[in-house]
Each structure stands twice: as C-alpha cells, then as structure tokens.
Amino acid sequence: MEATNQRPWQGIGVEVDKNLSSREMLYKAKLDWEVSKIPSQRPKSYGNQETIRFFKDFFGAAEAEIETVGGLDAARILWSLGRLKENFILKGGDVVKSYVLLASRDEGREKIEVQFLTIRESCFNMLKISSNAKPYIKNVFRRTFKPTFPFLNQKAQKFDDETRKKVRDMAAMGNKAISDFAENARLLTDKKVDNVIAWRFMFNVFQSDVDTNIPLLEEKELGELAANETRLAVDAFSRAPGQELESSSMTAWGLLNAVTYIVDHRLSKSQDSRLRQAWFGANAKLKKRAFELALAL
Q: Which domain holds residue 149?
C-alpha cells in the first residue's frame, strides 16, 4: 500500500485567514459563484456569501479558529472547518486535534449542518464525534427576496444574543463529547491485539455478514475470503502513517485508525466522493461501527 498523509480535502478546500472577508474567502476557494439549482425567486448572487458570513460568526461564537473553506459535488455543498481547543496527545506523541465542521447541503443555503470531529495529525484521519448538540442550525443570515425594491430583505446580518447563546451551548456540548472521546482513545491505546484479532475486527467492520470461524483459519485463507476493503484495512493496520507510534502499534487504537485511514484516503473513486462519503454518507457509519467494535474488544 502506498501510504499518504495528505489532508483528505487536499485540493478541494483552501486554508483561509480569519481576517479575510467572506467574499475574499469565496474568491480564494473559487466559490464566488452560485449553484444554478437555487430556486429562481431567490437572489443567486448572495447565497454563498451569506453562508460564509454565517460560518465566520458561528466559529467566532464557538471560540473556534476558521481554517479551511471548500466545496463538494460541483459546489452544491459548501463547507468549512474551524479548529477547537479540545486537543489531546496519546502515547508516543500521537497528537489528535479537535474541529467543528459546518456544511450547507441545502441548495437554498437555509440549513447548516454541524459536526464535531477529531483529526489525527500524523495521518489526517477524521472521526465524527457524537454529542448532545443539535446536528443543524438555521442560517439566519440567509435573506429573503421581495418582489419590490430594494428586493432583498435588509435585516442586519449578525447573531443576536439568543443565536450566540445557542452556538456557545452547541460548542460546549461538542467539546465535552471530544473530551469524553479522548478518555476512550486512551483506553484503546492500552488494549493490545494480535493479527488474528485484527483480521476478525476488519471482517466485523466491512464483512459482518461473513459466517466463518476466523480464529481457525490461516492467514492465506483469510486473505481469500476478504473483500478489498478488508484487505486494505488489515494492510493499513501495520503500514499507514502513524501506525508505528506506541499508541497504535498492535493496539485497538491502531485498528480504529486503520479503518478511518482507508475511508479517508483510499475508498471511493474520487477525492470529492471520498470526502462526501466520509462526512455525510455510508462510510461515516463504518467509522462509527469501527469505534464501537474497538471499545468492545
């Protein structure tokens, strides 16, 4: 396996400075145009700008540092990552950083999805962290169109006290969930595994329908039964970036990160599709299953 430790959004998202205006951010990300499917009665020239303004204010209220802006699926999806402060370090200097992902998959830019993520610095594997926070928030910056001059609703585009408190509460719940996850991650680094357990684990993640007594099979037989995803994950368990660290070498934490690695860097035909599946599709559920199975070891 040819290993990579590029960011999963390499070439799809761009790093931005918080001092840039929303228009400058969109220009840098080459997103300073609108999705053609937005209903014709809405002002097409403002949707993305208003959404980026919302992202910036959300991050500000959440005490997150905006880092990246990008688009997916021909810019139908507008997204941004903001760095939180709930970072942690595992054995061997394994640094894990915390983020909040904001995404608009609604072509009218009405609803903003909110996810809390951890990103492992050694390989840029991502894991969505479940929290008690609501998974979406209304884009209060999205202005309505009127049939008479001045056509656009002129309401002020800023967070009121209620919205700011809502965002702070969401961020607090996300940070708490990441803190709890850090404790679970430390437990996983203490769980030692062997190659047989690794094979069984990957079969449970990717081929749970296979009815076989894996411990009684030789490695060659396991390889013949394994689907491509299972083989890739077993290979990644020993060869992916970061797997040589004390936290990951022959541990349950290493098993989890082998799964997140191939989901974020290997599966799907294109980088765009890979990122969509990792954040919003079936592969996000695979990661969750891998985490639950790792805890159960």
A: 13-184
